[in-house]
């Protein structure tokens, strides 16, 4: 029978992490009499054997807290900055795992954490993961915890921006997180009544965006709200990036490849600055004043919503049950209103993007919200 488990949280923090730690820990301790050890600051704490004893008292009063009581980091087991070097520290992590006689290590994280956890599984550790991220982009689960909270925060921000955009007859561009997927921008844009929603899954044409704003203006609506996903890009930029990537793959000459890589870096830097480029382009084309609001880390802060608490709690308890049943090397996913253990191998290296025929995209099109492509 498993009697010792470890928990770590890795990647960007996300509302609901503490709710998941609490549910997993409480079930493991009270129902199955397991010992629960937390590791600080993600994989770094595992490498350094920096622990927190997660006894019942330590799990009390954390359900509603944002962030993670364990701390987190973006450190990767196989590329760990140590002094002035970057080293593969997976063996040190295996040592810690063995020293604590862990039966299972539970890693709470997003796509990057799934890959890192899989590396540890291949070293011989028994791993279970739980899907958290405000981006909602983890493959194999219907939803991730943290997403609902971020969605509510971004929606409220868009609600609030309406009155000031309206008063000043301005375009307001709200930059929403989401990494390379548009779940957050699309969801909050729809829920907040944005006039334009731009996401990575639907590359935009700047003239189509400007025309839609001008049409609103001519129709007597002298303001527009744009929900812009941080990973969005124009069709033109997307094409150039794709061509360069293909070019790099096909280039055999070393210096030629270096030159193409330099060019690619420039284009990626342009994408990273897309919000400001878009603002300038729209001011030029529409002659309306434009302002940018970057929601940033506010979207990840504070208490989780009830939906995220429920989801994290369900996944946490299901995880304890799976451990008790001897299951490992899986992600406990939310599927069709239930939980399911999905082989970790099937999740790793994939990303859940917004499908072109997703109901939110179809709904936006039915409402004639401009998605920048038609
Ligand atoms: O993955 C979650 C996320 O919040 C993304 O939406 C965003 O791109 C990124 O993390 C920000 O990372 P950091 O907190 O390291 O700045």
Q: What does it look like?
A:
- The structure is a single chain.
- By secondary structure, this protein is an alpha/beta fold.
- Helices cover 45% and strands 17% of the residues.
- It has 13 helices and 13 strands.
- It has helices spanning 17-31, 43-48, 90-99, 111-122, 147-168, 183-192, 206-218, 235-250, 254-272, 274-286, 306-324, 344-347, 359-366, and strands at 4-9, 35-39, 51-53, 80-82, 85-87, 104-109, 127-131, 170-176, 196-198, 224-229, 289-294, 330-335, 338-343.
- Strand 6 (104-109), helix 4 (111-122) and strand 7 form a beta-alpha-beta unit.
- The radius of gyration is 23 Å and the shape is globular.
- The N and C termini lie far apart (59 Å).
- The relative contact order is 0.17.
- The protein binds 6-O-phosphono-beta-D-fructofuranose.
Q: What radius of gyration results from the CA coordinates?
A: 23 Å
Q: Summarize the helix and strand pattern as letters.
A: EHEHEEEHEHEHEHEHEHHHEHEEHH
Number of helices, where a helix is a run of at least 4 consecutive DSSP H or I residues: 13
Unreliably modeled segments: none
Which tags fit this structure?
alpha/beta, binds 6-O-phosphono-beta-D-fructofuranose, 45% helix
Short recap of the structure:
This protein has helices at 17-31, 43-48, 90-99, 111-122, 147-168, 183-192, 206-218, 235-250, 254-272, 274-286, 306-324, 344-347, 359-366; strands spanning 4-9, 35-39, 51-53, 80-82, 85-87, 104-109, 127-131, 170-176, 196-198, 224-229, 289-294, 330-335, 338-343.
